[in-house]
Specification:
Layout (H helix, E strand, L loop, with lengths): L3 H20 L6 H11 L17 H6 L21 H15 L5 H12 L3 E5 L4 E4 L14 E2 L5 H8 L9 E2 L5 E2 L6 E7 L2 E7 L10 E2 L1
Antiparallel strand pairs: 1-2, 1-7, 2-3, 4-8, 5-6, 6-7
């Protein structure tokens, strides 16, 4: 019998594949896209420049089948309510996980700094909500209430928000983050708990520089 967790994972996998198929306009970007997704889950496939030869397949990563079954532990439940303490704790745990990988460490550190400075925005496009992230681990934490936003499918949302170059490739910062078209903020798209979210943040040090394409 298929469990609810398996059902959610299958749905998340199908959603991710659909979203990126729709947002990627160039066949030549598919290999780069796979590498990006692997990197988001802490797996660096940059050694030989090919995601297809990575230890884990893209499907394995999206479904969470990248650990030895003998060492698996029950996943921590993260609330889908982006204004809740549970979600904010899940967000910080996700950023800590990304920080542990060389491939995503720089942007994770940037997001953690933005979180502490009150400059990290979380958007649930499909749910039509956005909120300024707050530190649920602080005893003096002051929860921020989510604001209502226009609900949108992820494919259309990413097309509207992520900056591309003239050939249609995503533009990236030196730390691997994407760039938001509207305000030049750094951006990240990935899973927290069982759902996808769009994170955007500004930095106090300097405006976006050193952009590359991938």
């Amino acid at each position: 019998m298929v469990s609810s967790i398996d059902t959610v994972r299958l749905w998340s996998t199908q959603t991710a594949i659909r979203v990126f198929k729709e947002t990627e306009q160039q066949d030549t970007e598919q290999q780069s896209l796979a590498s990006t997704l692997l990197a988001h889950y802490g797996i660096d496939s940059s050694d030989d420049g090919s995601a297809s030869t990575s230890t884990y397949s893209l499907a394995d990563v999206l479904t969470g089948n990248t650990t030895d079954s003998s060492s698996e532990t029950a996943p921590k439940t993260v609330s889908a309510d982006i204004g809740s303490e549970s979600f904010m704790q899940g967000l910080r745990d996700k950023l800590a996980e990304l920080k542990n990988s060389p491939a995503t460490r720089a942007q994770a550190e940037s997001m953690l700094k933005a979180l502490d400075a009150g400059k990290l925005t979380v958007t649930d496009a499909e749910g039509g909500k956005s909120v300024t992230a707050w530190d649920a681990t602080s005893k003096d934490a002051k929860p921020n209430q989510p604001a209502t936003a226009t609900a949108a499918e992820w494919s259309g949302f990413l097309k509207a928000h992520l900056q591309r170059d003239g050939s249609g490739k995503y533009v990236r910062n030196d730390d691997g983050s994407y760039i938001d078209k509207a305000n030049g903020a750094s951006a990240y798209f990935g899973m927290i708990g069982d759902k996808y979210y769009y994170l955007s943040w500004s930095t106090a040090e300097a405006p976006v520089t050193g952009a590359t394409t991938a």
